[in-house]
Design goal:
This protein has 192 residues and is of the alpha+beta class. It is built from 8 helices and 6 strands.
Length: 192
């Protein structure tokens, strides 16, 4: 496939983003921040595809610059998320409001900061005292055993849930939600 020259900077940026090197290039980091800010927006993918196919570079630039600004504003939430942290069963736990785009955007960086001081970090998505999602991460510990223990206990309680992930990062989805108090009972029993 022959790629038009005007798309070269976007392809180079995508390559850097994909290889975890987006911060090495200003344009790649701008594009990556915009993507992270809009990560849950399904329309974003359609817009990007259309702009690329139509070679609408100015539209991509505008989207990237606005998204990068939104991402930077969201970073203001990182200290707040970190400040909510408590320890239970040796796990660092914090929470976000999933209705807040800024908190959802800042969550990953907050997790990475917490992982520097704590072996395993859980971020709970809490809405009206119900937890519907648990994000679990660690720099150097396997999180699968924790995911498995929480899922096992949820199923024992007849609560529908699914989960999984990779070695150091994963998550659990609880569609109907679980009260924070009840989830904390489950977490308190975990020994890792």
């Amino acid at each position: 496939v022959e790629v038009p020259k005007e798309l070269d900077p976007i392809l180079r940026a995508a390559d850097l983003i994909d290889s975890g090197k987006s911060r090495e290039d200003e344009w790649a980091w701008t594009l990556h921040r915009a993507y992270l800010f809009h990560i849950e927006d399904q329309q974003m993918r359609k817009d990007l595809y259309r702009w690329i196919m139509n070679k609408e570079i100015d539209s991509i630039l505008r989207w990237a610059e606005e998204g990068a600004k939104g991402y930077e504003k969201s970073r203001e939430k990182i200290p707040e998320i970190i400040g909510r942290t408590w320890i239970a069963s040796g796990l660092a736990i914090s929470w976000i409001d999933p209705r807040s785009k800024e908190e959802k955007t800042a969550m990953r960086e907050a997790m990475l900061e917490l992982e520097k001081k704590h072996e395993i970090v859980l971020i709970l998505e809490v809405e009206e005292n119900l937890v519907r999602r648990i994000h679990i991460g660690s720099i150097n510990k396997h999180v699968k055993p924790i995911i498995d223990k929480i899922l096992e206990d949820l199923r024992r309680r007849k609560i529908t849930a699914s989960g999984g992930g990779r070695t150091n990062v994963g998550g659990i989805q609880i569609p109907a939600g679980i009260e924070l108090r009840e989830l904390m009972e489950i977490i308190e029993k975990i020994r890792h």
